[in-house]
Amino acid sequence: MSNIADISADILIVGGGIVGATLGITLSRAGLKVTLADRLAREADTAKNYDGRASAIANGSVNILKGIGVWPDLEANASPIWDIRVADGHPLRGISPLFLHYDHSDVGKSPFGYIIENRSIREALRAVASDCKTLKLVQSANVVSVQRGPFGVIAETESGIRLSASLLIAADGRGSQIRNEAGIKTRTKMYDQKSIVCNIRHERDHAGTAVELFLPGGPFAMLPMTEHRCNVVWTERIDLVDHYMALPEDRFLKELSQRFGGWLGKIDLVSQRHVYPLGMLHAERYTSQRLALVGDAAHAIHPIAGQGLNLGLRDVAALAELIVDTARVGGDVGSNNVLARYERWRRFDNFVLIAVTDSLNRLFSNDIGPLRLSRDMGLALVDKLPLVKKFLMRHAMGQVGKLPRLVRGDAL
Ligand SMILES: Cc1cc2nc3c(=O)[nH]c(=O)nc-3n(C[C@H](O)[C@H](O)[C@H](O)COP(=O)(O)OP(=O)(O)OC[C@H]3O[C@@H](n4cnc5c(N)ncnc54)[C@H](O)[C@@H]3O)c2cc1C
């Protein structure tokens, strides 16, 4: 640990995806010196074929992006969600008449959240990061080794750059090498489903309605985007995905129409089709000496509720709050005290959502007659119970639990 590192900072974040970049900006805005390292080359992650997903960004996450000054760069590409409609469906039998409808006006004046393309979020984060004076973004920097000691960390990239800091934050995604090398075990499960994701343009206005249909192969979501477009997340049995991906465009569009009906009028495919394997993962610990895990490095969930990134952004807001409060009184930002408080704050919240999304997927992704009937009736029943409905809506909006200041819309 006595070598002089090439770049030194208070905090080293490995992984400059949406979670890592948001954390880097947040800490730098509060005056901390941050190194943000990502193995991808400059602009590789904003290329059209890198990520076809759009994310449902809950209100609490929007508050974070507003609080750190990223929202103005994003607003033009953000499409508000005014209503959410959930129903059972079947590619041959159509959509069930029993459904659950959420209207934003039941819980206030603002939308439930926004749909934004991941590429737009990354572009906005890059633009803001380049203006942060105490944030050093190092790209093409594949971190291959880490030494952690009682007073700090030194990491080394494949090209030999040494990065030192008081605290290392792993935001390096689901396959986190840093987590694995720290010996932190995970509870994992791969689903026998994959998600086909694409954008369609449609004739009729979606009116800001997000639709989720529970089909036998998995949930089928249509997320309202700007410019008369929807992002389709079609979760399907793993053995059928290659077949649908290989279909010529007109037959693929026919399959889509068969699933969601004709309410949007004529549709066109306006993006490539992308496929994502789906898995659940939860790290047994979020911290170790001078190390904290955030985002998918700590937890990954089924996209059925569109909450994975929102959980990661909540990790960011909580960890940043603890680090900044400690730095303001001259404390050690990588101390065991900070790390233990972070773990206590975030692990249970994430655990609950992991369990809920896993159970929802098991309950809804099948075609068992009696189960189908009871869940249809369950949806219709919840629709008639205003208090239950309100609680579920607040959860989806990220307004439940002990909320970090940024999530509440307060200053950090
Ligand atoms: C089909 C689908 C739909 C989804 N929809 C939603 C949604 O609507 N709403 C929602 O909230 N969530 C959604 N999610 C979840 C969400 O996409 C993820 O939770 C989120 O992208 C995780 O971001 P991250 O920054 O933690 O990780 P990643 O995006 O995986 O980023 C990790 C970064 O680390 C870098 N990296 C890795 N290893 C190294 C290394 N050794 N050195 C340097 N850099 C490294 C990588 O290059 C990458 O940039 C969805 C997921 C799927 C699969």
Write the layout of secondary structure elements.
Blueprint: E1 7-8, E2 11-14, H1 18-29, E3 34-37, E4 54-58, H2 59-67, H3 71-74, E5 79-81, E6 83-90, E7 94-103, E8 113-117, H4 118-129, E9 135-138, E10 143-148, E11 153-157, E12 162-165, E13 167-170, H5 177-181, E14 186-202, E15 209-215, E16 218-225, E17 229-237, H6 238-246, H7 249-260, E18 267-269, E19 274-283, E20 287-288, E21 291-293, E22 299-300, H8 308-328, H9 336-364, H10 369-383, H11 386-396, H12 405-408
Parallel strand pairs: 1-12, 2-3, 2-13, 3-9, 6-15, 13-21
Antiparallel strand pairs: 4-8, 5-8, 6-7, 10-11, 11-12, 14-17, 14-18, 14-19, 15-16, 16-17, 19-22, 20-21
Helix pairs in contact: 1-4, 1-8, 8-9
Bound molecules: flavin-adenine dinucleotide.
Task: Provide a descriptive summary of the structure in words.
The chain is α/β, with parallel strands linked by helices and 412 residues long. Helix content is 35%, strand content 30%. The protein is built from 12 helices and 22 strands. Strands 6, 7, 14, 15, 16, 17, 18, 19 and 22 form a 9-stranded mixed β-sheet that branches. Strands 9-3-2-13-21-20 form a 6-stranded mixed β-sheet, with helices on one face. α1 packs parallel to α4 and α1 (18-29) packs parallel to α8 (308-328). The longest helix has 29 residues, at 336-364. The two termini are 33 Å apart.
